Amino acid sequence: MKSEQKKRSGGSNIGGKISGIYFLATVIFVYLLLFLINSSGAKESITISIKILKSIIPILIIVIFFTFIINFFLKPQKIVKYLSKESGIKGWVIATISGIISHGPPFVWYPMIQGLREKGMSTGLSAVFFYNRAIKIPLLPMMIFYFSLKFVVVLTVLMIIASFVVWKVMDFINR
After folding, report:
1. pLDDT for 57-93, tens place per residue?
2. What is the total count of domains within the chain?
3. Rounded to 5 degrees, what angle do the CA atoms 12, 68, 116 make?
4. What one-character-per-residue DSSP string does the chain give?
5. Is residue 13 part of a domain?
6. Which domain holds residue 108?
């Protein structure tokens, strides 16, 4: 798994860090350009960006905490056992439940899932995690109010079943 990742990043993690620096430099350049063209728009954009950052900081802290817990308690052998291609239905159930109970924007979960994949999590199960994030427990009552209990139950069950298909297809493609 790690050798596959090294091939993609050019032999080390340096490629990822360099592309991150380029991205940051591009964003700063765009903000500076925007500031020269329309300073009030740039100020508004920065204000909105700071507001978004403030709203995701609690989620980032939770993700960092979960990543710490996972790294502290789960050794790579356990990750492979519960979330690898060989984990079977138990891995799918864990990825499904984890996806359903996870909150916040999906991009804050990317580093944690990447870390799990580096430790042996299958591509299919990472896709299952992200697929099942569409099921939001706090929003189910509102969905029931607007669409009916029957609709929500059927839709939720179909989404969970579809995630099983996604798991198999992604693992097949990644073989």
Report:
1. 887 788 788 777 777 776 666 777 788 878 889 999 9
2. 1
3. 50
4. -HHHHHHHTTSSTHHHHHHHHHHHHHHHHHHHHHHHH-HHHHHHHHHHHHHHHHHHHHHHHHHHHHHHHHHHH--HHHHHHHHSGGGTHHHHHHHHHHHHH--S-GGGTHHHHHHHHHTT--HHHHHHHHHHTT--GGGHHHHHHHH-HHHHHHHHHHHHHHHHHHHHHHHHHH-
5. no
6. 57-174
Which residue is it, tokens 């700063």? 28
- Whether pLDDT at 158 is above 50: yes
Residue 129: partners with Cβ closer than 8 Å, 6 or more residues away: 95, 96, 98, 99, 102, 109, 113
Is position 44 within any domain?
A: no
| Gap between the Cα atoms of 162 and 75, Å rounded | 30
Query: Would you state the pLDDT for residue 17?
Result: 66
